[in-house]
Design goal:
This protein is an alpha+beta fold. The protein folds into 2 domains: 81 residues, no CATH class; 58 residues, DNA Binding (I), subunit A, CATH 1.10.30. It is 22% helix and 24% strand. The protein has 6 helices and 6 strands; from the N terminus they run ββαββαββαααα. The strands form 2 sheets. It has a 4-stranded mixed beta sheet. The protein has a two-stranded antiparallel ribbon with strand order 5-6. The chain binds zinc ion. The site of zinc ion has 8 residues, from helix 3.
Length: 171
């Protein structure tokens, strides 16, 4: 069995979550969801062949509790920053407070970045102004459906148009 995953949309086309493709196929077979986009691959069972969906949509609307902000986590910061150090773009191994906590910096999405060991060590309790450093990208609080859906997962390019991540990349 292929361990692929499928993007699940609400009946309103709002992204809900990511499910295993096996689960998505089960939903389709139970008429609880319809395929919106196929992967071009198929799943073979004893009796039937089912196209593996990249995106499915629920046939009935489900209510989801609104979550204003994604909770701050080390994994989440790494995912947002692409695993790259915010200062030198090297491989990140830790998280760093841009304004150090000892200087009143908050433990919030807009003050926490992924950092490599070297930059973290050099930076220590200093501010960017003191070091003459600057950030490649200002750290932002992730919001919207894409974060709820993806968490720390790499988005499938076929999902991008549903997640507001820009134009889908054709395979
Ligand atoms: Zn670095």
């Amino acid at each position: 069995m292929l361990m692929s995953v499928t993007l699940l949309l609400n009946a309103t086309y709002e992204p809900l979550c990511v499910v295993s493709s096996r689960r998505a196929v089960v939903l389709i077979l139970a008429a609880k969801a319809v395929a919106v986009q196929d992967t071009g691959e198929a799943m073979h069972s004893a009796t039937t062949v089912v196209a593996i969906p990249a995106v499915v949509r629920l046939t009935r609307y489900v209510r989801v509790p609104f979550q204003a902000h994604a909770p701050l986590s080390r994994k989440g910061v790494f995912a947002r920053d692409g695993g790259r150090c915010a200062y030198c773009a090297g491989t990140a191994t830790s998280i760093d407070h841009v304004i150090p906590r000892s200087r009143g910096g908050a433990h919030t999405w807009d003050n926490v970045v992924a950092a490599c060991r070297r930059c973290n060590h050099i930076k220590a309790d200093r501010t960017l102004a003191e070091l003459g450093w600057r950030l490649h990208h200002p750290p932002r609080t992730p919001d919207g459906a894409s974060w709820r859906v993806l968490g720390h997962r790499e988005p499938d390019p076929r999902w991008s148009s549903w997640l507001g991540l820009g134009e889908p990349v054709s395979a």
